[in-house]
Structure formats: structure tokens, C-alpha cells
What we know:
Two copies of one chain form a homodimer. By secondary structure, the first copy, chain A, is α/β, with parallel strands linked by helices. Chain A has helices at residues 50-53, 128-141, 157-168, 180-188, 203-210, 224-231, 263-266, 283-295, 312-320, and strands at 5-9, 22-26, 36-45, 73-81, 91-95, 101-105, 110-112, 148-152, 172-177, 194-197, 215-220, 234-242, 270-273, 303-307, 327-331. The radius of gyration of chain A is 20 Å and the shape is globular. The A-B interface holds A 58-60, 223, 228, 232, 242-245, 248, 254-275, 277-278 and B 58-60, 223, 228, 232, 242-245, 248, 254-275, 277-278. Chains A, B: Keywords: Oxidoreductase.
Amino acid sequence: MDLPIRYRLARVPAGLPDAETWTRTQEPGRAPGDGELRLAVRYISIDPAMAGWIQPVRSYAEPVRVGEVMKAFGIGEVVDSRSERYSTGDVVFGLLGVQTEVTLPAKGLRKLDPKIVPLPKYLGGLGMPGFTGYFGLTEIGQPKAGETVVVSAAAGAVGSVVGQVAKISGARVIGIAGGADKCRYLLDELGCDGAIDYKAEDVGAALDRVVPEGIDVYFDNVGGATLDAVLARIRRHARIVVCGGVSQYATLAGARGPANYLQLVAQSARMQGFTMLDYLPRIQEAAMQLGALMMKGKLKTREHIMDGIDQFPAALELLFAGGNHGKLMIKV
Amino acid sequence: MDLPIRYRLARVPAGLPDAETWTRTQEPGRAPGDGELRLAVRYISIDPAMAGWIQPVRSYAEPVRVGEVMKAFGIGEVVDSRSERYSTGDVVFGLLGVQTEVTLPAKGLRKLDPKIVPLPKYLGGLGMPGFTGYFGLTEIGQPKAGETVVVSAAAGAVGSVVGQVAKISGARVIGIAGGADKCRYLLDELGCDGAIDYKAEDVGAALDRVVPEGIDVYFDNVGGATLDAVLARIRRHARIVVCGGVSQYATLAGARGPANYLQLVAQSARMQGFTMLDYLPRIQEAAMQLGALMMKGKLKTREHIMDGIDQFPAALELLFAGGNHGKLMIKV
Lengths: 332, 332
């Protein structure tokens, strides 16, 4: 049997990660100790937050250090168990890392049922991106029927859940995405009331046309010029949910702040950040809500699956170029 | 009797207002119509928000147009009344404008009692700046006992109320101000636990020293580099109250956004703007709370009073240079 493959942080990039950010190593795994499991990794989740996880800056979690295996969410199958809660063949979700095999404590993993939905859904709409969109929108955005909700990266794993849940809450929903394909997907599949292709037109001008009434809730995944364009058009008591700022990850050192932030004063508005960590105790609630919507066909998500762990550097590049269609992951 | 003097907007400045921003006119007033009052203006409030009021940008109120009398809060004495609610000699507060005399509807004015406190207090601690600090801190900042509160422009009209009310709520309070005099005032008179002189030292380094535990509540009047320094040091679930951004008023066109705003995500924190307009129906509550504190000697405020309406352009310059000590106003 081949030795497990692992991708380790070779050096911290100045901007976005590239091929030289990683070292590929092959080395034997270890047998599980008491309370531990050995897992064969099946799927590795590729997420925008990865750019932040390797930067040695103050954040919600300790950064990955040079030499360590890259952090990643993933789905694994138990091949050896020293925990009484798990048996061989069980499927689990957790921080498994970018590697084909891992031995780690059973504590902190979550068991998945492969019979309910296909496994990739557990990394997308019924996983962290789905929960992130659900809690960010409902807890922080709090859209009311008749309000206008704008979401950026709207065709992405988080954004597509945000748009559909906002629509169900009775709001008017406008999605922003890059490219005609994604915009068609927003309108035809996700039921958005409007779509803005930021690669084809000026977002500010498009917002003036599509939401002349102004914006009540903005779910932001991108930051940069889009955030400023929205800030200039918020309504009184608007809520801006800050989920990420992917346009700024390439230039963390000289990141651009939202120059129009004083519109928060003019409109008595709020801009609030969050991570899924805030809602960990409530994952079951989100899973049930989103699962029920999915069963009823009211929540569509799609996955973009690349084949083989050695696609890892290319997958990240694709992600930050906005080239993926749906939740990006690697099938190991 | 001399004709009333008025200061009108001559042209919109590119940055902060200067002498050429204004035209001084002298022209007769008019007799009050039904429901109107004629007032002799006694005090004119000089406020940072004035820089925004003359910019033709989207804000909480219509901007002053070229040719119009400059908007200003003030205190006036009724010299002629056509309203049954007011008699000659009554003293009122309202948007009276930068002029020595004005005729306007009685509606929207507030009656003041000159016997309780000296009139200038009604433009400071017991007026809009005091109410602004009170509601912004208690409703948006929501400091809890034991938390750390940082306030910028802490020796100013709003900031000094914020610091003292935060202290009463049991928080540890650090004030940021410009100059040794103001910092001494923060420590000796206002009871701050720490003071940072932004003109003498790097605010980030000073915060590292004074609040190594991080910041729970930041009441921001200035924006710019100070806001970024604070964002880099917020604690989980921190609240940033955006009251103003006086450091950016000189360059509204190319205002600087807070580059560290993604710390809102990392720390699940909130940044929220507001204006006093949100709390107009609750002015009585604030007046009673702050009035009671002032009577008990627990709320100190000071006023910086300049003499004569023709000091108006110079007063604004002093304000934006941070040269005033306490609430700035003109005695007409």
C-alpha cells in the first residue's frame, strides 16, 4: 500500500497561496491511541478561509505553522478505531487536513449518514458553508419580508444558501457573481430576483438600476469595491453581514478598508462579523432546517469536485480566481 | 438697531471649511407668521458634523445648499411669538442657524429652563453631544462591568460624557486625546483609568501597553489610523460605536476605510453607526439621567465659549485643529 500523502505549509505567501506555498510529503501514518481514530480521507474541502489560516495574524484560530500539515475540513472513513463511539466503516466530518490519511482524537468529529444525502453535500449546503450562510443571514442579517437582500459570491457555497434562505424569508434577493454562467444560475436555478455580473458591469451602476430602493441586508463574502458600492446604497438600519473579504486576501498587508463606512453613521446601520464557531452548539438546528428544505427541493446546491489530492494547489488557485462552479472540494 | 448678521454657504469646500466657504450678510428679519417665533440667538453650537452638513452627499439630512444660511444648533430667546406655546422671554433650543436672529416655526423647538443649569450646558453635556454619547454608549456599546472601553476625542463634548457614563457602568475606561493638557484632564477630572496622547505616541503601541487584555467597546469619533489600531486589538464580540470620523472629514472624496475591518470576522464583532435622530423620542430619558448625574457631581463637562458671531469661521478652524477645550460654542 502507498504511503499517505500530506501537503504541508512550506512558506507563508505574501498574498494568495501558490504552488511554492506547499511541500508534498509521503510518510507512514500511526496507529490510533486511546480514544483516537485512524481515518482514510475521502473528501477535502477547499475554502476561501484557507488563505487566512496560513497567515500568522490574529484571528479566530491559531494559524498553521510552517512544516505543519495544511488545515482543511474533510470527510473520512474510519479504518481503525480506539474509540467506543466509532466503528470501522463509519463516516465522519472534521478538521482532517490536506492528507490522504490521518490519526486523530475522536472528540471533535461529527458522524455523517451517507444514506440521507450524497457525501459531498456535507461539505456544502449541509456542511460548514451552508451553516455559515444560514446563521449569518438569519442571526445577523435578519431579513424581513419585503426587504431587499444583496449577496456577493452568490453562486458560491455560502452565497447560494444565503440567497435561497433569504428568498424563503420573503425578501427580494439580488445576487452578485462573476460571469454570465453564474448569473444565469442565480436567476434560473436559485430563484434570485436579480443578478449582477461584476466582471461585466460596474456594480454601483448595476445596483442603482436593480435596487433603486436601496439595500436592507448585505451578505458580504468579498469586500473591496463591491462593499463600498453597497455601503453607498444602504437604507436606514441596514445590516451588513461580514462573512469574508476574498477580494482582499491577496493583499492582506495592504488590505483596503471600506472607504464608505461612514454611511453606517448616516444610515444608523450595522456591520457585523461572525464565524461558524459562534454557532457550533446550534449545528443540529441548522442541519435540520437546511436538510428539510433540501428534501423539499427548496434548497439547491451544487458541488465542484476535483479528482486526487495532488490537485490541491490547483484547486486553491481555481477558487481564488473564482473559476469554480459550486462548492469546491477534492475527492481523494 | 443693527441688522441681523447671517453666515451663508458661499461654496462647498473640497475638504474642511475655511474662510472662503462663507458669505456674511446683513439683512432685515421678518415678523413671525401664524405658529412662528422670532428669536434672538444667544448661543451657536460649533460641531464636527458641520463639515458633513455642507457636503452634497447622501446622509441623514438634506445638505445645506449654496446661498442658504449655515445650519447650526443654537439657543435663542423669544422676542416675538405667534405661537400659544411660547411667550416673549422664553428660551428655546433648536436648529437656529448661524445668525443673530431668526424667524421659524415653533414646532421642533425645545423649551429650556435657564434656572436649572447655565445655558451653555444645554449645548454640551445636557444637549445633543451629551445625548449622543449617552445613547451611543448605552444602546450600541452596551458596556458591562469589568469590560474595557476605549473612547477617542475623549476630552470633547461627546467623548467626555461617554467616558464618565462608561466609568459609572463599571467598565475600565481609556481615553484618547491630543495633547498633554487634555490627557491630564481625562485622568484628573473625568476619572479615566488611562489616557493616550495620540499626538505624542503611536496609538497602537500605547494600546498594547495600556489595554493588553484587548478592547470590548470602542466609541469612535475620529476614524482613520486610530480606528485601525483599535480594530487590531478588539476582543471577541467587541462593539465599535461609530459616532463620527473627524480625521476623514478633510478628505471626504478619498476617505480612508478601516483596513483592519476583517477583524470583525475574526472576533465576531460589530461596528454600528447611529445619530441622535434615532433617539429623539427618548431625549427626556437622557436629559433626566445626565441631569441627575450632573447634580450629584458625577458628570463633569466644560464649555469653550468664543465671543461674537464673527468668530464663526475661526471657531470651525479651531474645532478641526482640535484646539478647543470642551464643547465649542459662540456667544452671540
